[in-house]
Please model this.
Amino acid sequence: MQDNADIQSATSNFSKTIIRAWTTQVKRLTELFESIGNAELQKEIAPQKNTGVYLLGHLVAVHDAMLPLLGFGKKNYPHLEKPFLADADKSGNEFPAADQLLEYWKQVNNQLLKAFNELSPDQWLEKHEAVSAEDFAKEPHRNKLSVLISRTTHMSYHHGQLVLLKKK
Amino acid sequence: MQDNADIQSATSNFSKTIIRAWTTQVKRLTELFESIGNAELQKEIAPQKNTGVYLLGHLVAVHDAMLPLLGFGKKNYPHLEKPFLADADKSGNEFPAADQLLEYWKQVNNQLLKAFNELSPDQWLEKHEAVSAEDFAKEPHRNKLSVLISRTTHMSYHHGQLVLLKKK
Model:
């Protein structure tokens, strides 16, 4: 039984370590958005590249889509799908104000973190909603954990771009 | 015993999922470096920001430092420490050629992946070498797994920047 308890504690440490990495990235990005401010977020991260506000809306839309993908419920902001997922920046869509998007960002991340903390280590290894039971039997790595990790690296990818908007 | 085996398989699936995320990022970056090419790597990712070749050297140096940090052995390229870790870009250091750095990049990542695959799930939860046993008792999240995850997000951060060098 001791062994069993040790191993159970190990799986729990695995999921905790990964949730901590997610939380760290969310915190860094939130602080970055706040330090950049609304006016600077309207600028492009580099000439002819995405604007800060597009990337903020994109990140909100991607995190919002994690709710159904991980089986936590429906999207909060389906109206962000067209301007920030389907369409590229500068496609003529009107964007919500940056501070409104930042509120959405905080809201969806709070909701996700609460749901993450309620999943057991075993549930992290269950399939996510975009893979069929049949495919999952062949590809067991398409689990909820892989979604958490890929969305963590996705944040980091855009963090590296958004930091270019910071004034020295 | 069945339970025990199930849980052991769960810890193994956790570490496999995370190693897979690492491997995916390494592959994406390697392909990106190859598609950008030596000449474009000399350019800045955005006006007055880091050059591609600096970021390549920086990534090699950070991955090289994982060897001692995770207890796998000594650094291969200690001479990269000054130009790519201690000093900022454009500090007057002479850089190795980009294709030489790309060879280092492939070499160190092969070496790391081999060592990762030899670690048991329990070993991933052991302390890394930059934390004392005393501090680790208080902060058990400072484990080898957290190094793997933070270096995976680190790659992604710079990937988001290096992609700006790609021609449309």
Q: What stands out?
A: Helices of chain B lie at 2-41, 52-64, 66-69, 81-86, 98-118, 121-124, 133-138, 144-162. Chain B touches chain A at residues 3-4, 7-8, 10-11, 13-18, 20-21, 25, 45-47, 49, 121-122, 124-125, 140-141, 143, 145-146, 149-150, 152-161, 164 (CB under 8 Å).
